[in-house]
Amino acid sequence: MDKEALVLTLRLATVTTLVLMLLALPLAGWLALGRSRLRYVIEALVALPIVLPPTVLGFYLLVGLGPLTAIGRAIVRLLGHPLAFTFSGLVVGSFLYSLPFAVQPVVAGLRSIDPRYLEAAQTLGASPSRVFRAIALPLAKSSILAAAVLTFMHTVGEFGVVLMLGGGIPGRTQTLSIALFDQVQNFDYAAANRTALWLLLASTVALLFVYGRSLFRRNRDA
Amino acid sequence: MKQLAFIAFILAAFCASSSTAKAQAKPAPKPKTELHVASAADMQPVFEVLAPYFERKTGIHLVINYGASSILSEQMISGAPADIFFSADYVFAERVVSGGMADSTDAIPYAKGTLVLWTRKDSRFNPLHLEALERKDLKSVSIANPDHAPYGRAAVSALQKMKFYENVAPHFVQGESVAQAAQFAQTGNAELALISETIATSPKFKNSGSFVLFPTYVYPEIRQCAVILRSSPQRDNAHKLLNYILSDEVQGHLASLGLRPIK
Fold first, then answer.
1. Closest Cα of chain A to B54: distance in Å?
2. Count of domains in chain B?
3. pTM of the prediction?
4. Which residues pair with residue A53 across a beta bridge?
């Protein structure tokens, strides 16, 4: 059960991170470099999952997108099953839950780029999308990497949404954090210890990577 | 400046909503004593009916925390501050006794539970029949986690005894408690649910769905037991509650609440 949960958790985190980064890069670019007034609204919406309890997300996904609403029925027609209790449902939940962790570091990275680089490229005739791809993204590389690592680990650490939406199916929706919860409830502290240690180690390594990288880079630059 | 105006607007909205809430709230006299109850999730509809009667009779207000019996027993053993624990079976109540936390030498049975199959009114399984569990086109059947919740364990053994298990098991979705299993089906996310009769007969579930009973011989008796915590500062009041539940008055009404009397 442990191994199944581990594989599932890694799969969920990988898929979520890939999908999220695909959306986060253009979105962060628009937020950091765009001129639209709408940016503040979108930026606030993106930050919502940080302050909202995961149970709010879980509730909306389960009931709001459940088969009792029109949107939910459309989903059932489209997928053949409701979002709840499926891997794709967990991906949707994780996508929303980890959205700010993918977008915010990239926005911060892009905003810290010296605007003169971007202006120079523009003056030399590069299109905005080319400026973004050829100049901005490479300069924000380390922020993008940090965003990906944080998104991945934040998804690994997800609990509330999965608890409400998952239905605890081994191999399909029972992630490590849920397995740990079940082991504690079963008084199986030995197994819980192993699971908790896994999560602790993985998170520590990931954070060391994120913070260590920036430290080494600073040393190298100095 | 704009930001200030925005913050002022939010604050004003908050004040307005809280003042209307205050105006609506009745100036209720504060009850004298509060008894902290940890109760199995299947008892929620039961206490919703009984708690007001008990409070009127004794002046004791019940503060109830619902959950899966295993989760609650774990909390009791770890020293959670409850006065009395209503389990949905004997095992988890007994665990608290053997943990040396009870004021009795044994768990005290207070009711017998019944397992039912529930589905929504608009489901394709109506008119509902236990044979629905034989169908090959099942999609999702919710049960309570069999490790945590007595009704989940009863569900698994009933399905095994009736030879439905092989057919149903691939479609299991598990709730942490019988209440979550029921909620999965009530929100339409799961098609069928194996839950307690207490929940199935509660007004919300009665209005939105229908249920059929499992024959009692296909699962081990769900003997719901209670334990009064030795550490409780109000053991007298806890005994009052337990005696109330065990009184002929309440035991005679249990059938209408989805339980069977213990005597």
1. 31
2. 2
3. 0.81
4. none
